[in-house]
Amino acid sequence: MDDLPFWRRKTLKQMTPAEWESLCDGCGRCCLVKLEDDIPEEKIAKGANPDIYYTDVGCKLLDAGTCRCRDYPNRSTHVTDCVRLTPEVVGEIGWLPPTCGYRLIDEGHDLYWWHPLVSGDPETVHSAGISVRGRVKASEEEVNHEALEDHIVSWPLRWPKRAKERR
To answer: What pTM value is reported for the model?
Structure first.
C-alpha cells in the first residue's frame, strides 16, 4: 500500500500542506468569475441550490497564460471573496469544476493522466484542454458587472474529449 501515491492512500484531511497544494492542477477554472442565480430563502431552506454560471472572465489576479494566481499567498487581501479550499469545504462547494483534483479525490475518484502529479509535467493540464489558457477573454477589472451575463460559457463544466482518454 505504501507504493500507492499519497492521493490514493490518504484522505484530504490526512494530507500535508504540500500534498494538499499539489492537488491543484493549475487549470484556473476556479478563478473564473461565476454568477449565481438568486433563489428565495424559503427554497434554499428546502434544499434548492442556486444555479452557478461560469464566465470567460478571469479574477483580477489570474494570469491567463500560466493559469495561476499572480499573488497566491496574499490573494484574500486583494480578492475578499476568494474562497480558500479546505478539506472541510471541498464537498460543499458546488461550483468546483468536475475536473478539479480536490473534487475528484473528495468524490473517491483517481487523478487523470493529465494531472501534473500523474504526468510529471505541468503542461499536460493545458495540452489536455483542461485549463483556461487561451479561453479567458478579459479580466474582471475590464468587464462591467452588468456585462458579465454576456460572458457566460458552459465549457468549464464539461470534460474535453481528450482529457478522459486513458494514457
So the answer is: 0.86
Q: Where along the chain do its domains lie? A: 6-157
| 72 touches 85 (CB < 8 A) | no
Cell of 59: 479574477
Closest CA to 30 of 77, 72, 78, 88: 72
- Give yes or no for residue 60 having a pLDDT over 60: yes
- For residues 129 and 160, the answer to whether their CB atoms sit within 8 Å is yes
Averaged pLDDT score across all residues of the chain? 90
Cα angle, residue 10 at apex, residues 7 and 14 outer, rounded to 5° = 120
Angle at 156 between CA 104 and CA 131, to 5 degrees: 80
Cα distances (Å, whole numbers) of residue 86 to 23, 58, 114, 121, 153: 12, 22, 23, 25, 27
**Which of helix, strand or coil describes residue 73?**
helix
